[in-house]
Amino acid sequence: MQPYTVKLPGREFQSEALGLRDALTESLNRNSAFPFHRLFDFMSLSASNRELEMQMRARGDIRFADGAFENVSDDPIDTVVRDVDSQGNNIELYVDTELRGRANRTGAVLGLVFESANALAIVDFLPPALGFGNRFLAAELTFSDSKVDFLLREEDEPTHQLVISLDLRLSRNDVETEVWTAAAAKGLTPSFSMVATEALVDGPCCGGRPRPRPRRQCVNLHVKVLIEPSLPIAEMVEATRQLFADRGLPVSLLTTEQLNLPQFLDLPVGTCILGQTTPEQRQLFGHRTSVGSTDIAVYFVRSTIPAFAGCAAHPPGQPSLVVARNADIWTLPHEIGHVLGLTHVNDNRRLMTGNGTYNVVDPPPDLVQAEINTMLDSPYSIPC
Ligand SMILES: [Zn+2]
């Protein structure tokens, strides 16, 4: 797969960038030390972020020896470069306590290849249409006479490569972007990140098809069994797990408890509207042994009154749902969808069909990206 390239103007940094290349080459020739922070100075990063500058300087020197280099420190760099453009975007930068790699030269081209994949950049400003996530590991840094290329690999998908290419011949005056103007108007020191707008990106990607961002949030379930349903609970949980796993929502069943509560076997649920619950629902949902405040309690009952396959109405702060004995295989994930903020659609290809999940066609049922985003943003899907 071809790397995706973001081209950025860099003429303003030309002398600094070429000076950096020459200084690195000299250190390499002499097998000598090189101040770590200088790698970043030419991008004006340190000038616009005092905390970052101090951390860069605290990292001391890169040691070159026989084409290999290392930078080992007690202090990792763990910094957010805040508000880098008018949109309020951030770059988070993590460099672990060890940074090692190899250097190579071909004529005027100097390359640094990072062998320990421990420099991580979290980039806010990539256009979603790119289809990449936003977490990248530093792979290579290449200096030539005309450009400086940062090759990054997506953390979860190393075949997804992003090159941030600083073109040393291109001036920012060559690039008409509102973002740049806005950044200048705010009195910010222009850095490469400020001009990474959609207008500037080109290159092949994804066959034009957006991919879900590989964001990940975990969903924890606790099963409370008043009566065993017709379909095995394990099958329903497995179908749920498979359906949500591909969408960045790993589902875990944490505990299973048998409840002897015959008075709630046929549970009145009223109109089963989100936020409205009956006294019986509230009493049943009070049985939350082992259930964390952001975990979802699933109660298997004989029936609801009136009869639904399931119902996800629950009191605030007590994420709960019921599944009736006659539920189908998609009832559990459908009700979890409700608890995570989804509403009905009139489309029987989708999980959230309002026509009953027993009418689902072309299984497994679909979840659209907006629904996935809603679930990822729910307080009941948690970082994992
Ligand atoms: Zn529903």
How would you sum up this structure, described in words?
A hairpin with a 6-residue loop joins strand 11 and strand 12 (161-167). The relative contact order is 0.11. The protein has helices spanning 14-30, 38-41, 45-48, 50-58, 178-185, 233-245, 279-285, 331-339, 369-377, and strands spanning 4-9, 33-35, 61-65, 68-72, 77-81, 91-95, 98-106, 109-114, 119-123, 135-143, 147-154, 161-167, 201-202, 217-225, 251-258, 266-268, 296-300, 303-305, 310-311, 320-323, 382-383. Strands 1, 2, 3, 4, 5, 6, 7, 8, 9, 10, 11, 12 and 13 form a 13-stranded mixed beta sheet that branches. With 384 residues, the protein is an alpha+beta fold. The protein is elongated, with a radius of gyration of 27 Å. 21% of the residues lie in helices and 29% in strands. Bound molecules: zinc ion. Zinc ion binds next to helix 8. Zinc ion binds at residues 334, 338, 344.
